[in-house]
Amino acid sequence: MSRVLYACGLMVLFSLIICFTTLLQSVLFSISGCALIKRLRMKAFSSMLRQEVGWFDRSGNNSGALCARLSTDANILQS
């Protein structure tokens, strides 16, 4: 009987360890994904700032399109 209880206890312990490590993995992947998205947006924005003035006059490069590009392109990568 004690061997059965010992085996059940080990199974419960291993299950708890697996649940904890899975949760930790999800949290750490989420944190690293957010850091990657932030870095991507910063690089894209700094690249936009280095463009010539004429680049902003194009219809596809107005302020609304650039803001939309910064938000949607990074979110596509995250999902």
From TrEMBL:
GO cellular component: membrane
SUPFAM superfamilies: ABC transporter transmembrane region
Any single Pfam family the record assigns to this protein: ABC_membrane
Domain ABC transmembrane type-1: residue ranges: 1-79
Transmembrane parts of this sequence: 12-37
Cellular localization per UniProt: Membrane
GO molecular function, one term: ABC-type transporter activity
PROSITE patterns registered for this protein in UniProt: ABC_TM1F, PROKAR_LIPOPROTEIN
Top-level taxon of origin: Eukaryota
Record's keyword terms, sorted: Membrane, Transmembrane, Transmembrane helix
Membrane-protein topology: Multi-pass membrane protein
Name this protein carries in UniProt: ABC transmembrane type-1 domain-containing protein
Source species: Rotaria socialis
